[in-house]
Design goal:
Blueprint (H helix, E strand, L loop, with lengths): L13 H25 L2 H8 L3 H7 L3 H24 L9
Helix pairs in contact: 1-2, 1-4
Length: about 90
């Protein structure tokens, strides 16, 4: 696996952030249905409703979008958990 970092390519505009999120959500479905090896970038962009070239504005490769997806899902999971334990009086209860 290569070492390209998607963090260096994070969009600066709200529209770019929304497009990147659409790509990640489409990648989640594509990888979930087909697995990593059978998933296709063209299917991800089709699901996201963006042009194929738009994918490469945000990611270098299928591997990079997969890594970004893992990080994205990790953040969503941590956020979901933190909201549910926010009112807990102590760590044991949380």
């Amino acid at each position: 696996m290569n070492q390209h970092s998607s963090s260096a390519r994070l969009p600066k505009t709200r529209r770019g952030q929304q497009t990147r999120e659409k790509l990640l959500q489409a990648a989640e479905i594509e990888f979930g249905e087909r697995g990593f090896h059978d998933a296709a970038i063209s299917n991800i962009t089709q699901r996201a409703g963006v042009a194929l070239g738009t994918f490469y504005v945000h990611f270098h490769s299928k591997e990079e979008v997969f890594r970004a997806l893992v990080s994205y899902m990790n953040r969503l999971t941590r956020h979901w958990i933190s909201r549910r334990i926010a009112e807990s009086p102590d760590r044991m209860t949380a």
